[in-house]
Amino acid sequence: MKTHLLTVQARGTFVLPAELRRRLHLDRPDAQLKLVEQDDGRLELVPVVTVPADQAWFWTERWQAMEREADADVAAGRTTVVDGLDGLLGHLDGLRPQP
After folding, report:
1. 3-class SS of residue 53
2. Which residue range(s) make up the domain with 18?
3. CA torsion, points 41, 45, 19, 52, in degrees to nearest 10?
4. pTM of the predicted model, to two decimals?
């Protein structure tokens, strides 16, 4: 854990150390921090990455659970590699129940 002493200026502004801004990617345009006020009076600054509204679905808990499941399948070798569209269609035909 690192500690940094910040001086609050007259207008309520303060400066984060340059090394900290670089390491946490806060040196990028429009970087944002979330300020969390704890019940005991402590203040916590949390770097925030904004997500465009049309991509927010990807970060829902449900979608992230499905991503973790897919990653586990890949890691366990539960995948099939096919060669091109014809290979894919042939593989899918092979999965179809036969009458």
Report:
1. helix
2. 1-50
3. -170
4. 0.49
